[in-house]
Amino acid sequence: MRKIETSQSLFERAKKVIPGGVNSPVRAFKAVGGDPLFIKSAQGAFMTDADGNQYIDMINSWGPMILGHAFNKVEEAVAEAIKSSLSFGAPSEKEVDIAELITETIPSIEKVRMVNSGTEATMSAIRLARGYTKRNKIIKFEGCYHGHGDSFLIAAGSGAMTLGVPDSPGVTKGVAEDTLTAKYNSLESVQSLVSANKDEVAAIILEPVAGNMGCVLPKEGFLEGLRELCDQEGIVLIFDEVMTGFRLAFGGAQELFGVNADIVTYGKIIGGGMPVGAYGGKQEIMDFVAPSGPVYQAGTLSGNPIAMSAGYAVLSHLRDNPSIYTELEKTTQKIVEGIQANLDELGLNYTMNQVGSMFSLFFTDEKVVDLDTAKTSDTEKFGKYFKGMLDEGVYLAPSQYETLFVSTEISNDLVQQFVEANKKVLEKIK
Ligand SMILES: *Cc1c(COP(=O)(O)O)cnc(C)c1O
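^ Those are the sequences you sent over. The predicted structure of the assembly is below.
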């Protein structure tokens, strides 16, 4: 048996002084049962908890550690930057370097503003879209997560035409009324919202590949259809690529699917493990942001030199080594094929979704294409699977409705180890 005494005593201490004992709810093991593990260190593909147990890491800090933990170039860049103080509150060269790198490599981005999290990026992006279009409403999709900004914490009403209701206490009715909720992969549900709110919709925001209801791919024509609709109606199309940016390809989902958004939001990989987000797009729109334009958005620590050094080290490494993306995809396919072989052998009919280095195993035999179908999953079974995998030394995301991320540190041996663990656990819980 794994010893988890140290994690448990840390969690007891944490619960007394931090709400729920964690600084982000997804870290708690609420969805799977049990208490969170406290992590002490990580290196390459592995994380080590406070009791010294080692795990193959399949979350990679929820995406950022695409090159694995403590990647040499990144650690060196940070160590070098630290010598010159941690923050200036004035412009520095690294901010220009990273903005040039992004605008030179991502065709849809002419200007970019750095912020401190994905949440800040999406909040700022919709404020900008509203300021630019002089319209108030936004359309989001059921099951898409865009951080914890008020406008995004809205569940769908009973019908597609009903106004949103707050998903969380503390979100006002006024805010909820400006957020319309459509069904992922259903262009019709978007079209009817747009018709019912003619000339009132400022932006459509979505995860071009959804990762926050588990991994859900856009149906063929879905992204293209949204692009067309936005062009017709003068709506700003926002791709929230906080998860998919620099992950599915260097140019993210925009590159992979060949559809460009008007504004793109980033987070996760862009900071290489440091707290960074960004939003960027066409110059005409971005020039609406203060101080060049009237839409206010600011940040004391935005463009922080340490964070920019980490981000630049990761992004430049990915840009200079494009074969990483084909390698990551190959590794991921091997894992997915291994799991599929296990499922077939055991006569189980669960659903696998995968794109690039993102994948999810859903404990349902339905095709998962949106939130409703994702919700057919047996979450109790997932909880058992999660715990079983931990015991086998594999750290998964502690919820059925998350995506797993493969890093470049996952070798063929580790693929093998993962697939064997998967088989052993599925056998036990099936
Ligand atoms: C993680 C995530 C966010 C929120 O980013 P934070 O840095 O946690 O604020 C927003 N959108 C998507 C798609 C995400 O995956």
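Residues 323-346 form the longest helix (24 residues). Residues 117-119, 122, 145-147, 207, 211-212, 240, 242-243, 267, 277 surround pyridoxal-5'-phosphate (CB under 6 Å).

Shout if you want it in another format.
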